[in-house]
Amino acid sequence: MAQPVQGQPNVQRPMLAPQTDPVMQARIEADFKPVYLAVGGPGHAFAFCQPHKVEKCDMCKLDFTALNRISKIFITNPNLRCPPPPTVLQQKLSQAVTNTKEEGNTLYKHNKHREALAKYNMAANIAVQRPPWESSALFREELSTVISNRSAALFELGDYLGALVDAETVVSIRRNWPKGHFRKAKALVGLRRLPEAEQSVSLGLQFEPNNTLQGGASKTHANTEGE
Amino acid sequence: MASVLVPVLYVGIVIGSLLVFSHFYRKRNTGKLYEPYFPSHPERDVYVTLLQQSDPPVHEALLKAALLRRAMTDVSRVVKLREDKPALQNLLQKGSIGDDLWNSLLQAEKELEAEILEVVAEANTFVEGWGGLIFQTAGEMLANEKMRGIYEDTSAARARKGNRTTTWQGWQGHRAPCS
């Protein structure tokens, strides 16, 4: 199922030499309010709040964590002058994630659920290392598969709450994937919340009506409800 | 017999005065400023503050990161305006809202266009040709950051769920009949 790489909707860029409206420019400049920040860290490449020198300050209501994270990527890759287009990817990262996930899958099949969980955690950590400007569609696929498998492992270990949280993560990042809803339904069944489980299954079936696995689960829920 | 000139003159004066009035009215309205649609632009403020810092001079990496964050905010605002516009138009036609909010939105659109041009120009000062790419990159980064935020919220979400379960169970015992 090839998913086309889709960025946000295209911003209209004028074809001719853009003339900035001086009135608007003046408004932009008038709108400027200086921020109380201080620059520090190695190479003066990180921002902190000025009075407290913290990255994320609740008192000054400033949060530079994301900014510093991006800056760090630039610092650690001095050859990277500007982020490449989203189609340029790091091959090794995807491979590492897939390999770790497959190792986890093998362990899961051999009923070694705790080790499988460790592998899935590792895979998730690797997947999150991806530079933020790479294809978000690929990131979504990888992360959702790993977290879905982790939810299954947690379910087998009896941690229904953790499985539910993971399944909800999967559903919120990839809503049209029936497996995510299936995992959520299973976790809810484990928590004895059957009506919600049935809702989850029916929502998942809406995305893929011919999904046999979920169809079977739906019938099972209907039977257990009737008891 | 009254001359034909009189009604013609009358019509001419009426139309002339209408034209004169509309000319001055329009002139008065173009300079009018409406309430800003978006309250402030914190990422732009951070970027300009960093640019103005000269002692010690800021590393280029931090400036590029600040520019990327600014572009990300701009992309999210473009999306929001696109969503809000037809909805506001509908409300305006039905008469539920006044003209001011609609004019604010139009003004915000023009401001955003100027802002985008500025970001493109700034991007080109760092790396030639980056301006054409930066908004595509910003879009991907927005999606990425959203997913990463959900993932990192996992343990907090678990704590919330844990609390809610016990509260629900505790409440069930003391449930009063709805009257």
UniProtKB/TrEMBL annotation, chain A:
Keywords tagged on the record: Repeat, TPR repeat
InterPro entries xrefs: TPR-like_helical_dom_sf (IPR011990)
Compositional bias (Polar residues): 208-221
UniProt keyword annotation of Membrane present: no
Protein name: Translocation protein sec72
Gene Ontology terms for molecular function: Hsp90 protein binding
Stretches the record annotates as Disordered: 208-227
Gene3D superfamilies: Tetratricopeptide repeat domain (1.25.40.10)
UniProtKB/TrEMBL annotation, chain B:
GO cellular component, one term: Sec62/Sec63 complex
Name of this protein: Translocation protein sec66
Tagged with keyword Disulfide bond: no
Alphabetical UniProt keywords: Membrane, Transmembrane, Transmembrane helix
Keyword presence, Transmembrane: yes
Phylogenetic classification of the source organism: Eukaryota, Fungi, Dikarya, Basidiomycota, Agaricomycotina
InterPro entries cross-referenced by the UniProt entry: Sec66
Membrane-spanning ranges: 6-25
GO process annotations (BP): post-translational protein targeting to membrane, translocation
PANTHER family found in the cross-reference section: TRANSLOCATION PROTEIN SEC66
Organism: Pisolithus tinctorius Marx 270
